[in-house]
Design goal:
The protein is mainly alpha-helical and 484 residues long. It contains 18 helices and no strands.
Length: 484
């Protein structure tokens, strides 16, 4: 059945046209809304900003951990193990007839000669090879030096690898802390330096704790154990290197000149004091265990106990140095550290009783990394930040040169005298000269002279301000984009 629809009136057609126009406008508005950037609600904006802030804190925390780990393991392996772990091995190698007493002391001095070569060439080498590759290569050399000395061999073979381990240790000591501190914020570099130089003491403590039971099972196992320990620490160092990123907090060199005559003279005196310190602690770091074991006749086990006291002091040394520097200032803290170390070195020259030896070992151990940290801080205080690397390189080279000279001189004197006893008096006099240099360095500065870093903001400070403004200007569009 066909039903015919009646035609619509004019009013109905007009109503349909209006309805179609309304739908078209609604669809157009919906399409425009989809194309337009969405503005997040205040709660959502807060959540986004909180997430960004949390991610930034996590990245900053990881960067800080990686930087400190790189610096600490570099000092632990380069100095704590490569040099100081050899000291407890000297009497054992002599008793096992691997070498004579004179040869064993010469091998200890060979490490110092290598340290001198590495300290002198470190800055030039880093201009050719990237610092992470220098650190990785140095780690490999030290690991090989332990592994390839695990079997009895000729004196020349051991001398070569002790020389190379000293060279690699110097590269780690120069490159590791410098890289780590450059990637830390300025406000955290004080704490970072304390943790980094604690690696020296940790290396001494590990050698004091782990070597005696290993030596009871033979020298071969002991060298292999040192190899495994170096590999473990090297893996931690490589993990830190893989997680480092260039930091915006690192200050760039300034074109300003800051070579005031009083500061230059004070810098030279501080470097001279640092060099005398290198000669002053040679008896405690190279000959201490052999002196106590064979000359004082305490035996290897008891001598290792006093070597452990030196290590405990070395762990606490950077902490003590940090407290002194915050309380007294860099110059007075460095002066006190030299005075304490001088007294500690001289103690065995007057008495060999147990508590005197323990106090001497702990005092010298504490001031080994303590003076390193305080000297670095004092040099940074005396010169602009862009000159610190050059001054620290000069100080490290002077330290290494005097250390090698003193090491060979003491070894030659022992071959002639057959006793270590006079060495403590000579070392105390050398440290006394260093104390005098620090005192004169403090007086060379003008009473009203201030550090250049505090006089005016540096260029990176203004760059940071501009960068902050730029980030604030672009924050809203970025927020809209992320919300969408």
């Amino acid at each position: 059945m066909l039903i015919l629809q009646q035609p619509k009136t004019g009013t109905e057609c007009q109503a349909l046209d209006v309805e179609a126009q309304d739908k078209h406008i609604a669809l157009k508005q919906e399409a425009s809304a989809l194309d337009a950037p969405k503005v997040a609600s205040p709660d959502k904006q807060d959540r986004i900003m909180h997430r960004r802030h949390t991610d930034h804190q996590d990245n900053h925390r990881q960067q800080k951990t990686a930087a400190i780990l790189v610096g600490m393991t570099a000092t632990l392996i380069g100095v704590g193990l490569a040099r100081f772990a050899y000291t407890p091995l000297i009497p054992a190698m002599i008793e096992a007839s691997w070498f004579t007493a004179s040869q064993a002391t010469q091998l200890a001095a060979a490490n110092l000669l290598g340290y001198l070569l590495g300290a002198v060439g470190a800055h030039r080498l880093t201009r050719i090879i990237k610092v992470p590759w220098v650190i990785g290569g140095s780690l490999l050399v030290i690991i090989l030096s332990f592994l390839l000395c695990a079997q009895p061999a000729s004196f020349g073979w051991f001398y070569l690898w002790r020389l190379l381990s000293g060279l690699a240790g110097a590269l780690l000591m120069v490159c590791g802390p410098s890289l780590a501190l450059s990637l830390l914020p300025v406000s955290q570099r004080h704490l970072g330096a304390t943790c980094i130089f604690m690696g020296i003491g940790l290396g001494i403590v590990l050698s004091a704790v782990l070597l005696p039971p290993m030596l009871a099972r033979g020298l071969t196992l002991t060298w292999q154990g040192l190899t495994g320990l170096a590999v473990l620490c090297g893996l931690l160092n490589l993990w830190g290197l893989c997680h480092l990123r260039p930091s915006a907090t690192t200050q760039q060199p300034s074109s300003a000149t800051h070579n005031a005559t009083p500061a230059a003279a004070a810098i030279r005196l501080v470097i001279l004091a640092y060099a005398l310190d290198a000669a002053g602690f040679i008896p405690h770091t190279l000959f201490w265990v052999d002196y106590l074991s064979r000359e004082v006749m305490l035996g290897t086990t008891q001598a290792a106990f006093y070597w452990g006291a030196l290590g405990i002091g070395a762990v606490a040394g950077p902490i003590v140095a940090g407290i002194l520097s915050r309380t007294l200032g860099w110059n007075r803290a460095l002066l006190m550290a030299f005075g304490l170390k001088t007294a500690a070195v001289l103690l065995p020259a007057f008495s060999q009783t147990g508590w005197v030896l323990w106090l001497s070992a702990a005092g010298v151990g504490a001031m080994i990394p303590g003076i390193v940290a305080l000297t670095a801080g004092r040099l940074a205080e005396l010169a602009h930040v862009d000159q610190h690397q050059r001054n620290w390189g000069m100080a490290t080279a002077a330290f290494a040169g005097m250390q090698a000279l003193a090491g060979f001189s003491f070894a030659a004197c022992y071959a002639w005298l057959g006793t270590y006893q006079p060495f403590f008096t000579v070392a105390g006099l050398l440290l006394g000269g260093g104390t005098l240099c620090v005192l004169l360095a403090g007086r060379r500065m003008q009473p009203g002279q201030k550090e250049v870093d505090q006089l005016q903001p540096t260029a990176p400070y203004h760059s940071a301000q501009k960068e902050t403004v730029k980030q604030q200007e672009t924050a809203a569009p970025a927020l809209h984009k992320e919300t969408r």
